[in-house]
Design brief:
single chain, alpha+beta, 27% helix, globular
Length: 182
């Protein structure tokens, strides 16, 4: 019988016939999700591409959107995502278009729904874990030193390039370091 929640198609809820071949990444992720309710994946910076971090398991455990942050220190982003994960687990997940004054390490953040065409290049672990929709993902966007967000007038070009604009389709996104993975 259904509990009224939207379905989850992850490898914990469905046997896709490959459980004996899951890689170490997925096995470790499953342990984290089983113990804590979610896991945070860290993508270390490479050359001129900043690092990023994203959650796995918030949808499975709490039917809350997965979260992703870009352009900061990966360990600080992990701390922020874990704090937001605890809020989601407590029943207050962020929503698309929402702004929170103390979302990221006591700093403000805005939340934007990620276009699904970014999932494969930016969140391959999420695709591997969930296998198919639904998989809501929100980008956690941090403001510049003046409190302005990427899309607001008055922001400097280096700041606008420090985080991807994943709510845009890849074809609408400005060319640069974030579109190289496409």
């Amino acid at each position: 019988m259904s509990d009224g929640r939207q379905p989850c198609h992850c490898v914990l809820d469905h046997d896709y016939g490959d459980r004996d071949r899951l890689d170490n990444f997925l096995l470790r992720t499953i342990v984290h999700i089983t113990q804590y309710g979610w896991s945070v994946v860290l993508v270390q910076p490479e050359e001129d591409v900043p690092g990023w971090a994203y959650t796995l398991g918030l949808w499975h455990s709490h039917r809350a959107p997965e979260l992703a942050m870009f352009g900061g220190d990966v360990y600080e982003m992990e701390e922020s995502l874990n704090a937001l994960g605890r809020q989601a687990a407590a029943g207050t997940p962020p929503a698309d278009g929402e702004r929170r004054a103390d979302a990221a390490r006591g700093e403000p953040a805005a939340f934007r729904l990620v276009d699904t065409r970014w999932y494969e290049p930016m969140f391959p672990g999420a695709v591997e874990f969930y296998r198919r929709p639904p998989l809501p993902m929100l980008q956690v966007v941090w403001p510049d030193d003046q409190g302005l967000f990427l899309w607001q007038p008055g922001t400097a070009l280096p700041y606008r390039r420090s985080q991807p604009w994943l709510w845009l389709s890849p074809t609408q996104h400005p060319r640069g370091i974030w579109t190289r993975r496409l």
